[in-house]
Amino acid sequence: MEEEIEIRMSDGTADAVLYRADDGRRQPGVIHLPDIGGVRPAHRDMARRLAAQGYTVLLPNVFYRTGRSPVDLPADAGDEQRTKRRAELRVPLTPDAVERDVADYVDFLAADRSVGEGAMGVVGHCFTGAMAMRTAAVRSGRVAAAASFHGGGLFTDTPASPHLVLPRISARLYFGHAVEDRSMPEEAIKKLDRALESWGGRYESEVYQGAYHGWTVPDSRVYNRPQAERAFQELTELFADTLR
Fold first, then answer.
1. What is the residue-averaged pLDDT of the chain?
2. Helix ranges, 76-200 (H)
């Protein structure tokens, strides 16, 4: 079942899509966080496919403070216009705001009648890879697995760097990095890997050769089907190992 819903958030109301079994079964909950393009057919298909593996999947509009889905980010806009629009979408998502949001997503999903009482998972794409990490940090007692694909800015030299939440995380983590990614260059990947090693939890971090930023999303101009299929396999194996 695919249901359009609204979530009462700490900072307003978020529109979202919920995918659950139509036979009343209670299944592990998973949060599917979209990229900068927001909730749209490509991510709906990805969330629906994940739900078919035996999960109740929440696909939230992470930009609800700016407006309802779909996000107005036209593909034919000029670079300057797209850069300005991306900034409008991202500026409200401060680390504190994100942590309030993802806590609300987890709590909403945990309370749904179609979700079991056990562990939950989260997956982020592009800039929401960092949101997936923060989800695992703010609800460490419930979130047992978090994945990031072509995540950007996961390690920075700022006080707000996502890697700094690692001590608060008990979940198993997976990072699938893109090549030649300006938002997560090779040196940043190496620094993240060193931080993960020092953290001491269970994790995997790998670069998908020949796969560029956005490769997992079917409507991306750099969509790489073979590598996207491998990413989906890694994700489903991660959730099968931790959420069952």
1. 95
2. 79-90, 95-111, 128-138, 186-199
